[in-house]
Amino acid sequence: MTDTSRRTLLAAGLGSLAGAAGMAMLSSQPGGQTPSLIPSAHAQATGNSTWERIQKLKVLRAGAAIQEPWYFKDPANGSGPGTVKSGQDTWRGVGPVIAAEIARSMGVQLQIVETTWGNASAGIQSGQFDFMLCLDGNPTRALALDFVPTPLLWYPLAVLLKGGLTITTWAQANDPKYRWGVILGSSSDTNLTRAAPKSQITRFQNASEMNAAFQSGRIDGIFSLGPTLELTQAKLNVGTVQVLTPRGALPAGVAIRQEVDQRWKSYLTTAVSFFYNTGFTQSAYEQFLAYRGVPENKVLPIMRERWS
Fold first, then answer.
1. Can you tell me the distance from the alpha carbon of 277 to that of 21, in angstroms, rounded to the nearest whole number?
2. Which of 41, 82, 202, 264 is the most exposed, fewest CB within 10 Å of its CB?
3. Is residue 112 very low, low, confident or very high in pLDDT (cuts 50, 70, 90)?
4. Domain Solute-binding protein family 3/N-terminal: where (predicted)?
5. Nearest to 133 by CA among 142, 143, 120, 118
6. CATH code of 160's domain
7. What's the confidence (pLDDT) of residue 29?
8. 183 close to 160: Cβ distance less than 8 angstroms
9. Do 134 and 38 lie in a common domain?
10. What is the pTM for the complete model shown?
11. 122 with 217, same domain?
12. Which backbone phi and psi does 59 adopt, to 5 degrees?
């Protein structure tokens, strides 16, 4: 499918989603609110749901935590395929591209709000932004947030190992002699803590700090998502990426605020499924690979059906 035909299909399929989602309000509230759930100040003041706020203000706010290939703020303010403008900033990555297509389909303006993985849940709860792509659901987060039931994409959890180090299984990684790095609050943090509790785990606020620790030899490897590590390895030109066994496919999530009004969740469920099935999500990923000069045939696709 060409880029032109894909965008024509997207426009035809998504152009009427806003109206359809507007009819999809349900009466039951997903999950139970917990004391940690913080309703947004805007919602408290106006009583508006997320859907109503977006339709009224014509602004869609997307959370973004810098980590390639999901979110990257281009310091050169470049242009071309895969670039998204928000205010004075130029963003790249799967998250901004999909968020921009959602905003375009809804006929609203996109505003990208920078956050961190550790603060993302609180940002959604407090109403700093309306949703966040690639913020994965887990039992703890589900106490305070709601999640779109359709996976955004798929990825394996992997490790970038320092030169000369070879491990192939989770059992081998669970050893006190190994020093692993992971981003605080990420899904990789949750999985590594559960799978390798005996190892030494250092949690970093961002990828730059973690990469610096890896390059200096302060950690033996970086645990993250396969696509992220493929790009990190290409950028640093050091180490090897290993998908440990048993290998599991992890779904990337879309997080939203818990609400009685289900129209926003209904709309996102339809849109995310449409993007995945038409190949738009994979195309957004490939655009970022091209920007980084990484051949797409050298990395796993984010469509699980294409894994060999």
1. 19
2. 41
3. very high
4. 59-292
5. 120
6. 3.40.190.10
7. 26
8. no
9. yes
10. 0.74
11. no
12. -135, 130
